[in-house]
Specification:
mainly beta; 292 residues
Length: 292
């Protein structure tokens, strides 16, 4: 029996190998069975058709990808199926384990191929007026665990905007005068009206009025892209962008846990009380960028 993800965001299913789910909607009913899942791919059967989905590009985000190359998503039998994560990624750091939060073999997205991937409502690319190369670093190995977001590179000071309508949930301000650079820097979490929680990391400052509890509309200025958390390093200036599903988003805080064997500074975690998990933002980012 499928373990349905939280009701707020539809379409995500946690499955064990051999389990099936029969999604309803648009008059289409097809049994989707999980056949296999490992560190790089997921195999599924839809009716009599078997397909393999690659979890990501597994390459440097500076290398360009064709805009129609989203290997983690396929369309078959009138369904759009996406593979986000597999059991091997429930390993490593506290950051990775807390955000993955997977008790089965794989997490799939299943929806109608006739509908946009994004839920209803206006959505925009969070880094406007940029020439994105479709680079992706979802699930790459990094010092603090698996990379569970997508980095979008731009110049320091470039504007960052709200991806959709929503409410600011939490703000974390990094103070370099009292702590070392920590890979995270400044952070903002916004609960979208679509049910997703959007995480923006490394901005330098916030636009006027962007405070906890503030309402933002799609395209509203959040602030300039920055280098908080890694300012003295050679790391490319970027937005670290995450999308999460939470059963209790009102309980979210930017939480940290000491993990000396992984990092010299505390590592970020997702609090267990929010009952949440991260999803792959890359297919959504491609859809928003192409829809400009």
């Amino acid at each position: 029996m499928t373990k349905q993800a939280f009701e707020m965001v539809e379409g995500y299913h946690d499955l064990c190998i051999g389990e099936s789910v029969t999604p309803d909607g648009e008059g289409t009913k097809h049994v989707v069975r999980l056949l296999a899942g490992d560190e790089t791919s997921v195999s599924v059967r839809v009716g009599n058709v078997e397909r393999t989905l690659i979890l990501g590009h597994f390459q440097n985000r500076h290398l360009p990808n064709p805009p129609n190359d989203v290997p983690s998503v396929v369309e078959v039998g009138g369904l759009r199926i996406g593979a986000d994560l597999t059991k091997p990624f429930m390993s490593g750091s506290v950051y990775s384990q807390s955000l993955v939060n997977l008790e089965t073999d794989a997490r799939l997205f299943i929806g109608s191929a006739r509908d946009p991937l994004s839920p209803p409502g206006r959505h925009v690319f969070p880094v406007p007026d940029t020439d994105w190369n479709y680079g992706e670093n979802w699930l790459q190995k990094v010092k603090y665990g698996w990379h569970l977001g997508v980095d979008v590179d731009e110049e320091q000071g470039h504007p960052l905007v709200a991806a959709t309508d929503g409410t600011v949930l939490a703000i974390r301000r990094f103070d370099p005068s009292v702590q070392q650079e920590d890979y995270w820097g400044n952070g903002l979490a916004m609960l979208g009206d679509d049910g997703f929680v959007y995480i923006y990391m490394h901005w330098d400052e916030l636009a006027e009025g962007v405070v906890r509890g503030a309402r933002l509309a799609a395209g509203d200025l959040i602030g300039p892209m920055g280098r908080s958390g890694f300012d003295s390093t050679t790391i490319t200036t970027h937005l670290h962008f995450e999308m999460l599903v939470m059963k209790h988003p009102e309980r979210f805080t930017f939480a940290f846990e000491t993990e000396p064997e992984v990092l010299p500074t505390p590592n970020r975690i997702l609090p267990t009380e929010v009952e949440g998990f991260v999803v792959n933002p890359y297919p959504y980012l491609v859809e928003w960028y192409e829809g400009r």
